[in-house]
Design a protein that fits this description.
Layout lengths: L1 H37 L9 H25 L2 H27 L1 H17 L5 H13 L15 H4 L36 H39 L17
Length: about 250
């Protein structure tokens, strides 16, 4: 029975290591794909990508420890490995639940952040660059529609206020050279950015939540296997090959 538990735990440790690598990849992807959008959010939220990055890196390292502790039947290491799995379970639940619970708050923060970025477009260069990048990448303009720019400080501060939009709203360069814009707004992305950003982030946060909760559920199996194997190893037992030195 102990040999079977040992085999199962070694197999699980390999899967655990692969899950850590997956978490690390998802964390990198989340940081690169979501960081630009999260800059504009006015609400506080847990740094989910950072949690995934740190947890994934730790899981990769400790996955090797799990294989070693199972192979050598080292009781102390097995208990340490079980404690680490418990910590990963807590981290996975935290990532999953925070991603699900904060989706609505993040969406509201984006809506406020987009309005702030439009109103401070001529003053805050950092937010202006982020807003331009979002409008270009998502083919959107304004918060609800391209008309949000018409009464913005950026438009009103011009010598003659005109119904125009920034170049980042253009589908074609010639489409934004008209001032004011023609009634059909030819060449301009008409859709607002809020719905697109909200859907993009909400969908990705759901995938992150699924990954986090999946890893957490997997830890229950690992904790049980680790506990059962550690319980079957005598407390005085050391790693195989570690004989007791003879007295002279």
């Amino acid at each position: 029975m102990a040999a079977l538990l040992k085999l199962f735990l070694m197999a699980f440790s390999f899967v655990f290591w692969a899950a850590g690598l997956t978490m690390l990849i998802i964390g990198i992807w989340a940081k690169l794909s979501l960081e630009t959008y999260l800059v504009l959010s006015t609400n506080e939220y847990p740094n989910t990508p950072f949690i995934l990055l740190t947890t994934g890196t730790a899981v990769i390292v400790w996955g090797f420890l799990g294989c070693y502790s199972a192979a050598t039947e080292h009781r102390c290491l097995l208990r340490t490995y079980g404690s680490f799995q418990l910590a990963v379970l807590v981290a996975g639940v935290a990532v999953g639940l925070s991603s699900l619970l904060y989706r609505k708050d993040i969406a509201e923060g984006f809506q406020n952040g987009l309005w702030e970025a439009i109103h401070s477009y001529t003053e805050d260069e950092g937010k202006a660059e982020v807003l331009d990048a979002i409008q270009r990448s998502l083919n959107c303009c304004g918060v609800e529609s391209y008309r949000d720019w018409f009464f913005s400080p950026w438009s009103m501060e011009k010598p003659t206020p005109n119904n125009s939009v920034p170049m980042s709203c253009c589908r074609a360069r010639k489409g934004c050279l008209h001032s004011p814009l023609p009634s059909d707004a030819w060449g301009v992305n008409r859709d607002g950015c809020f719905s697109k950003v909200s859907h993009f982030v909400s969908d990705n946060m759901f995938y992150i939540a699924t990954a986090g909760l999946g890893v957490a559920i997997m830890q229950v199996v690992g904790i049980i296997l680790t506990g059962l194997l550690a319980a079957r190893i005598p407390s005085h037992a050391g790693p195989p090959g570690g004989g007791v030195p003879h007295s002279i």
